[in-house]
Amino acid sequence: MPMSSYEVVRRAVEFATPDRLPIRFATLGLSDTHNVNWNQIGTGDHALRETLDEWGCTWTRSEVANMGQVTGHPLANWRSLDDYRWPDPDDPAFYAGMAARFAGSDGKYITTGIFMLLFERMHALHGFESTLRDLFLERERIERLADRIVEIDLGIIDNIGRRFPGQIHGFSFTDDWGTERSGFISERLWDDFFKPRYKRLFDAMHSHGWHVWMHSCGKIDAYIDSLIEAGVNVLNLQQPRVFGSIEQFGRRFAGRVCLESLCDIQHTLPFASDDEIREEARLLTRSWGTAAGGFVLSDYGDGQAIGVPLEKKQVMLDAFIAADRWAAAARGSA
Fold this sequence. Notes:
Helices cover about 40% and strands about 15% of the residues.
């Protein structure tokens, strides 16, 4: 009997030999996971030119369809810190209606999460350059900011865990950590400031029985060893070409953390031929996965923003299914 979607994803994450490739491809109506959101505003209504999130950050969008960017930072000036009204993680309104969102999740791996967990939330509140600068110049204040964010995140994690014990399998979040050339800060500073705070958050997620799923853009390989040590289970990396050699990256990290990816969203999907997409799909499944699992195919949802039509995504999906080494192994052992 084929494994359920839940079992396929769980086994891939835990390197317990799934019987096929786990897929998260909602754009084409195919996903082994089901996300249950709490009532976070996040980036807000993308049809509006400007929105506010629950932290009071202003999101602004241009005429190009995308999620926009933060242009209003409520804690840009440290003088605002004492009077700032923090979100209340115990507010019942955050979780109202959440139970109904489990509908349609039968047999699937269920996720929830927080958009902009720590670093992204820090610079959304205080400004990107200011946050990097004040890691050195205003250490006491920047620690106060980071620790308050962590406390709110822990409150949300605890509330969701208490409300839905045993019903959720993975907790996902975003924190972009790099450019296409390197990470934003040194490994030493990252380990000193961020690693213990991530570990505290990951420990809380694990305490509810959840896997930890992290999305991060950019060349973040300098931080991956520390993220693994802190307890991350799945890394969503949508620019596999940014690391240079896909094979070399796989030799370094495959088997140590589950890698969630797709053909490169900047270099391959928008510009490569169908045959090049097929070759990269084969390369990723072989290099970033292991015989025991450790790889998840995950679509980049905003195809319009990167110039990728659905037809091209279908080519990629078909290519990964054709390259599915786990299904082939299961058929061979049947």
